[in-house]
Amino acid sequence: MDPLTLTGASLNSDVDRLRLLSHNLANVTTPGYRRDVAVTRPFDAHVSAQVDRTQGALRYSANPLDVALEGDGFFVLQSAAGPVLTRHGALQLDSSGRLVGPDGAAVMGTTGEIMLSQSEPRIDQAGNVWDGDKQIGTLRVVRAPAEANMTSLGNGLYTCDQPLQELEMPRLRQGYVEASNVVPMREMVRLIETMRHFEAGQRLLRSHDEMMERALGVLGEP
């Protein structure tokens, strides 16, 4: 591959990295968000994204509808496009008393949707949901295989390209929200480094164009 083609491929990779870094920074305050990590494969001019599954910090909110997962696992939401995964545990009730995620998609239990009669349920460490003295369901918590590719849909929602595994012993904390695992300062440093690399590639291409113009000018002289 000639140097000019290599420089073009490098610029394309930088554009992809800038997109991922900007997306991470835009989701610094999104609960349960997992940062995208740029992955470059040999002979591929573009960068793909890999989800960093490192857990974010757990923050106490005192809201009984907030639930955070400790360790592995994802909640399952039933969206219009099908099941999606999330660790965004700032849950809500819709007008019918159905437990939903921040985007309005139903939070799935092990036997289906969860309906509540009041806004202060008790949710234990295993994910069992109590409406007053009555247990009405158990939050479904699944594991995405380590080798699976996860795709971010925005707002802390993900899809997985492999079959999900039921997590038999989840660890939940009611009244807590998991923060994004994005460290803003680190992402800003990576953003600045990538922008500088991109600008260097632009200067190289500009120098090549100027050199070619001068060469053509010389060749065109009588």
Could you characterize what this model shows?
The chain is an alpha+beta fold. It is built from 2 helices and 19 strands. Strands 5, 6, 9, 10, 14, 15, 16 and 17 form an 8-stranded antiparallel beta sheet that branches. Strands 11-12-13 form a 3-stranded antiparallel beta sheet, with no helix packed on it. Strands 1-2 form a two-stranded antiparallel ribbon. A hairpin with a 5-residue loop joins strand 7 and strand 8. Helix 1 runs antiparallel to helix 2. It is elongated.
Radius of gyration: 24 Å
> What oligomeric state is this?
single chain
Based on Cα principal axes, name the global outline. Answer: elongated
Tally the beta strands: 19
Order of secondary-structure elements? HEEEEEEEEEEEEEEEEEEEH
Low-pLDDT segments, ≥5 res: none
Structural class: alpha+beta
Q: What share of the residues lie within helices?
A: 25-40%
Please write out the topology:
Blueprint: H1 3-26, E1 36-40, E2 47-51, E3 58-60, E4 67-69, E5 74-79, E6 82-86, E7 92-93, E8 99-100, E9 106-109, E10 112-113, E11 122-123, E12 128-131, E13 134-138, E14 141-143, E15 150-154, E16 157-160, E17 165-166, E18 172-174, E19 176-178, H2 184-219
Antiparallel strand pairs: 1-2, 3-19, 4-18, 5-6, 5-9, 5-14, 6-16, 7-8, 9-10, 11-12, 12-13, 14-17, 15-16
Helix pairs in contact: 1-2
